[in-house]
Amino acid sequence: GVVACSDSVAPSAPSSDASPPTGDSETANQTGASDEVFVEVEKRPECGGVRALADHIQYPDLAHEAGIEGRVFVQFVVDENGDVTDPTVTKGVHEALDAAALSAVKKLECKPGQVRGEPVKVRMALPVTFRLDGGADESNDDAAPSSATPAPDSGGRLFEKAGIQVVRVLMNEEGDLLLDDEPVDESALTDAVRQRITKDAARAALLHADGAPTDRVDAVEARLRALDLQKVYVQKVE
Question: For 64-72, what is the mean pLDDT?
Answer without folding.
Answer: 80
